[in-house]
């Protein structure tokens, strides 16, 4: 790691959040003197301190270590074969829960075709005919309509 790369990375993270080192100290539970060492001496963190900083910044630990120059990209990557199926499924479950927790709770809406409004949004409802059936009926009625008189039809 180049001297000061950890601090350069941290300073960018602090600037992005509008934080001062004291904010990081409080959020991560790392002493202000330790943060001062990172800034003034270019000292690298211990894994425990890096983990605390990652949690305080709400950043994943490995990308934080890569961004700070403590790990190379190659060191941070493992092939999928290095993981068991259970570990992969657990990771997918964690990520799915994280993503779904960020999705607003609202009814799902689907586009439907209605007379006078070609794209009308309606919420799913057990009282309404399934969307697939409505769409198939619309396609059928469009296909069965006679062509408009015009130059192409010879009328």
TrEMBL record:
Pfam families with a match to the protein in the record: HTH_3
SUPFAM superfamilies: lambda repressor-like DNA-binding domains
Name of the featured protein: Helix-turn-helix domain-containing protein
CDD domains: HTH_XRE
InterPro entries, sorted: Cro/C1-type_HTH, Lambda_DNA-bd_dom_sf
Annotated organism of origin: Amycolatopsis halotolerans
Location of the region described as Disordered in the Swiss-Prot/TrEMBL record: 103-155
Domain HTH cro/C1-type: 10-64
UniProt signal peptide: none
Entry-linked SMART domains: HTH_XRE (SM00530)
Ranges of biased composition (kind: Basic and acidic residues): 134-148
């Amino acid at each position: 790691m180049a001297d000061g790369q950890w601090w350069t990375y941290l300073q960018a993270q602090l600037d992005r959040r509008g934080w001062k080192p004291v904010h990081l100290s409080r959020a991560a539970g790392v002493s202000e003197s330790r943060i001062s060492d990172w800034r003034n001496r270019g000292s690298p963190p211990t894994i425990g301190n890096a983990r605390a900083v990652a949690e305080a910044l709400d950043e994943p630990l490995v990308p934080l270590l890569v961004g700070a120059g403590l790990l190379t990209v190659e060191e941070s990557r493992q092939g999928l074969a290095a993981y068991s199926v259970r570990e992969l499924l657990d990771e997918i479950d964690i990520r799915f829960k994280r993503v779904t927790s960020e999705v607003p709770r609202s009814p799902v809406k689907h586009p439907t075709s209605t007379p006078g409004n070609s794209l009308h949004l309606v919420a799913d409802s057990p009282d309404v005919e399934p969307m697939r059936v409505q769409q198939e009926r619309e396609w059928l009625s469009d296909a069965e309509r006679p062509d408009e008189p015009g130059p192409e039809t010879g009328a």
